Amino acid sequence: MMNFGTPTQTAAATSKKAIVLYLHVHQPYRVRHYTIFDAGKDHDYFFSMPYEDRTSNKRIVQKVAEKSYLPTNRHLIELLKTHAEFKVSLSITGTVLEQLEKWAPEALESFKELVGTGRVEIVGETYHHSLAFFYSRSEFEMQVKMHRDKVRELFGQTPQVFRNTELAYNNDVAYWADQAGYKGILAEGWDAVLDWRSPNYVYRPTYTENIRLLLKNYKLSDDIAFRFGNREWSEWPLTADKFTHWLNATHHGTNFNLFMDYETFGEHQWDDSGIFEFLRHLPQEWLKTEGNTFMTVSEAIDSFEAKDQIDMPHTVTWADTERDLSAWLGNPMQQEAIHALYELQDKVLATNDWQLIEDWRRLQASDHFYYMCTKWFSDGDIHAYFSPYANPYDAFIAFMNAYHDLKFRLSEKGAEV
Amino acid sequence: MLGWELPPYNSGGLGVACYQLCKALSKKNIDIDFILPYKHDEPVDFMNIVAAHPQDVTAVKMSGIAYDSYKYIYADGTEENVSLYEQEHHYEKAVAKLVEHGQYDVIHAHDWLTFRAAMRARQVTNAPIIAHVHSIERDRAGGNAGNPMVREIEYMGLMIADRIIAVSEHTKKCIVEDYGIPAEKIDVVHNSIDIDAIVPLEGDNAYHYLTSMKQQGYRVVVSIGRLTMQKNLPNLLYAAKQVIARAPKTLFVIVGSGEQYFELIELAAKLGISKNVIFTGFQRGKNWRDSYAIGDVFVMPSISEPFGLTPLEAISYGTPSIISKQSGVSEVINNCLKVDFWDVNELANQITAVVRSDALRDELHANSFREFEKLTWDTSADKLHGIYHQEAVGVAA
After folding, report:
1. Which CATH number fits domain A17-310: 2.40.70.10, 3.50.50.60, 2.170.120.30, 3.20.110.20?
2. Candidate from B345, B363, B371 with C-beta closest to A35
3. Which of A270, A315, B155, B324 has the fewest beta carbons closer than 10 A?
4. Can you list the domains of chain B with their CATH numbers?
5. Predicted model pTM
6. Shortest Cα distance from B370 to chain A (angstroms)?
7. B94-132 confidence digits (pLDDT tens)
8. Which of A378, A396, A400 is opposite residue B367, by nearest beta carbon?
9. CA B351, CA B370: separation in Å to the nearest integer?
10. Average of pLDDT values for A153-168?
11. What residues form DSSP beta bridges with A120?
12. Average pLDDT over residues A279-283
């Protein structure tokens, strides 16, 4: 593990050290094998695939609910009951909430139960897990509002802290969130930006007044999210005891920001890897030391002063070695697809046809563009290509056929396309 | 090594594959006696080429196509037409005699025409037989059973062989299915392509009309190959009709000759797409190379293709490919669109997508070209070398 910050830096004796555990819950509406023969005829892109199909949203959400959401929530509830100091933050997209309502209502209930404890904070984001911030500010704001409304309706909470899709962050995103009244925003703690600074503090984005920035400690987060089950890893097996020891040995910093996909528990790391045991023991081990605690993202922002300001003129995300948007927008197919989609905005919105607008919004999910990424696939390393499609080209073809159908529907309504 | 043809005399990929494999093997210090049924006049310095035919024959004349009958010319000036089976029989006897004086570690036999000779050679030399399958009778018969006599020789050769090499997983699967050979007996060694041997494009493209149509927004779909059942071109025309209905500025260029020529022209007319389908006939040289280059996408929809070199040639000339899943080449290139040969709608779906999106076309080509550049016969020769070593004592690893 690498140490951040200056060794002379010590937290004030009275202050606490907190683990800030933030989990991201999301499922997109994958486009079925939608062909040019469907376009103009069958306007169902997301639902009518066979249950066994790789793109089947129903099958995937039910599988993930069973393997990840339900067991993880059971463990989290248990931890919340056992440890008064245990807390967790969640972001949960509109598209996964809808799918849970339809196909795994018991999983949705367990999320409600979690939030009902009063020690789970919901983080704001776009309803459709989109990259709209970079293409249409008005559409972006609409999706953030839709998400806020949905969270209020289901969980009775109003998000105070914001995360953009894929943790895509730059100074503009921070400025927007500051103006919109959020008290905090989340981003990747990428070395190229942090330089000598540690991600284990609260920061202030440049050009903002009130908002605070929490940065993902990606080394500690990835130890859990990616490396946990890897037997080749020198630290395998990772125990709660060992992990806690690392944190306690880090004498600088106030907040350890462990940000990861919720599906880490049970889906990316399977039950037999011991991931649930790790989760179960982590609070117990961590809380053994006086002054150690857990905080939600808002609490961390309220508890600690900003250490410094952070300038991120270029967009940083939480994906792959480049930490930029190239996994979503790096190749010409991805760019063509996303530009084509946003070009339809005014015409789509002018129809006032909710079904049409919603289909258009579902196509905005960043996942669709990720499936078109060729940078791993093209090197023949097809195992690195996580997607319900056989290859990125099939993903592009299905998406573009859905786009052609959207245009067909617009022309049926008299729009010029 | 027992083979039936070498370039420039060859009917298809067989001769080229043998030539390239031997060339790559010779770099690994493997000494090869390559036995052909005729005298080879082209100079080759990396192996010893031997002719196997009756002793009193002074010349073997060929029509240029390997699976046709040959003409023997005897010392006394008389001529004799020999059928393929007679030729195969003569080859077998001559091979048995030739190997009497040699020392061989393995007998490497290419395709069914050499299998009987291989069995005789094993009786003489005790060396193990490696049967190399470039195509089986089912492929050649366009998915039907084919010639029963050929099947029998093929079956016997594969049963008796000590080891079998298939040019693709697809062919391996066919061998297991058709002849009940255990899969463990078969290794896959993919064919490759000699990138240095590709003649570069030069000058303006020979298709002036198509060049001008492309400037007007048309997109060109190309298919190159024999017009025969195996190549599945009727399905390409059925798909073309669907594509043209949705993307009218699409032209299909069918390059090649064969027994389906008239049938395909009639079918295009019957489908009402003659204006968009161009038959060029058989082409060679610059016209042939430019046929690949003029395409926005190349299509090989074959019913069964043991390997299938044409998509690689297309990629080399700047055109991405749509390839039948029932082909060996689809196992070595990831960055192409793949389709079941019977799925006309999916073929139409894929072609439509490419002609409608230059981004898709360009991304497919850029990434497939990177895969193409890594291909080399050395990889195939390495695998073969390993198999030789397993089968025969005396070959250095």
Report:
1. 3.20.110.20
2. B345
3. A270
4. 13-192+377-391 (3.40.50.2000), 196-373 (3.40.50.2000)
5. 0.88
6. 8
7. 999 999 988 999 999 999 999 999 999 999 999 999 999
8. A378
9. 22
10. 98
11. A88
12. 97
